[in-house]
Amino acid sequence: MDLKRLRYFCAVIEQGTIAKAARVLNISQPPLSKRLQELEEEIGAPLFSRGTKKVEPTAAGHHLYRRACEILRGVEDATRETISLARTETRTLRIGLTHLYQNYFQNFMLELNKRNPGIQIGVSISDSSHLERLLQNKLIDIALIQHPEHVDGYSCIDLEPVRLVAVVGRALSGVAPRGAATLAEVGHWPLVLLRRAEGLGTFDRLQHKLREVGIRPNVVHYISQPGVILNLIESGLPAAALLPASEVDPGRWPQCEVIEIEPRVDVFYPSIVKLTAAPHVPEVMDIVDEGYRFSEKEFRC
Predict the structure, then answer these.
(1) Per-residue pLDDT tens for 214-266?
(2) Three-state DSSP class for residue 135
(3) Is the separation of the CB atoms in 197 and 272 below 8 Å?
(4) Nearest to 247, CA basis, from 104, 128, 97
(5) How many whole angstroms from its chain centre is CA 172?
(6) Which domains does the chain show, CATH number per domain?
(7) Which residues pair with 136 in a beta bridge?
(8) Which of 39, 55, 109, 145 gives the lowest tally of CB atoms within 10 Å of its CB?
(9) Who's near 74: CB < 8 A, 6+ residues apart?
């Protein structure tokens, strides 16, 4: 069985359409369709259900995809290990870290570095949508991001949700309640919300939650980085921000007040994500499997 055909087959399953898979693989659609047809002829059974816009695997297709992922992972592991031994070169672990959870994953990154002194760790910091694209193009090995909206082709380790808090500057401090507020109360103020470059994310989740409590939010800014939002609020922007508690240290922002949202509203879902077909990442997984405790920092509001 040809490995290239298996890679093409897995790409089509993960991307959902032949057109998307062709773009990711950087080939035209006709040769990709031909390789899939050759694979079906070799197997002697249809691997996809025809007649729908999205490619849907048959039962045989599902089975082959699972086994193909194992085979390709094994081949990539063997290749990487052999090259590493042959060149005696330093292994590089490529990690994508979202702006959304830089503080949340900080201690985990320190633990990763402490346990692997012989490994070079490269970190790309961006929003979750861009990091998903880097993951799909195999430019990073693993992503520490918001849980993906669509998980086809991903292996995800979902962590506990991070609390939502409101951050209010001095311009609104006279109208802001002390200690805690409902989402509806916060929703009446001008808002600054997080928003990724593309795709659904926390921006859409927050707006949906606000509409559920009868609020049509007045969003005056949307920004991808919590730190930029906090700088604006600290500098006197008359608005409130809705942010993950892990990214807000009240001690660093003396002109801001941090308000708990009660009852609790969950929209921030950190996750450790890799491609299903990508090689195992033991440096990360060993820490997780040993029960490493992920938790938001206990900042005092």
Answers:
(1) 999 999 999 999 999 999 999 999 999 999 999 999 888 888 889 999 999 99
(2) helix
(3) no
(4) 104
(5) 33
(6) 3-85 (1.10.10.10), 90-160+269-289 (3.40.190.10), 164-261 (3.40.190.10)
(7) none
(8) 109
(9) none
